[in-house]
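[audit] Reproducing an earlier prediction to check determinism. Same input, same settings, fresh worker. If the tokens differ from the archived copy the diff job will pick it up downstream; this log only records the rerun itself.
[audit] input (199 residues):
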Amino acid sequence: MTRGVPTYWIVSKMFFRTLFTAIITSGLLLPAATASASPWTVKPETSSLTFSAGKGGNAIRGSLGSFSAEVILDPANLANASIRVTIPLNDATTGRADNDKALHGAEWFNTGQFPEAVYESASVARLEDGTYSAEGSLTIKDIALPATLSFTLNVNDSDAHAEGQAQINRKAYGIGFKDGSLVPFDVTVSFSLDASKAD
């Protein structure tokens, strides 16, 4: 396999439905404010989900082509908030065919046996600075570990924008090389999502 292949992922481009069956994203996090609120529709042309390992010119970067999310999130009632995100790992790409082949292989994501990663929240809170934090678990290769989504959320009438990130350690999931000299263990997953209310 090609050494230097990146890892990760997470997270895509379907979102928001209503407070009952909300579909959004990673940002994953666009609101369903009340039971009578209109559904939200994500704008895939202006939304993105990316990952990076390392810094500066040596950073390894990639993206996920899609993911689905079921979200109940009313900023005024966070006690009942829930987020579940499903990420098809076969959509992970670095823009290089040799790297992508290795990324999907047994040493990395092993998508033949583990085609999806799943994030599921346990709680969502608004912090003092106005940002949001979702505590939950991320399951990759049948290994579930704690994961925190940190994000901002802005709503302007019929439009909403969410963006943020999560920090993941690939070694904890048994993903990739066993040393961090070529590909760092710490991976940042970032998302930027736009959504609008349906008519």
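[audit] rerun output stored. Observation attached for the diff report: Residues 97-103 form the longest helix (7 residues).
[audit] end
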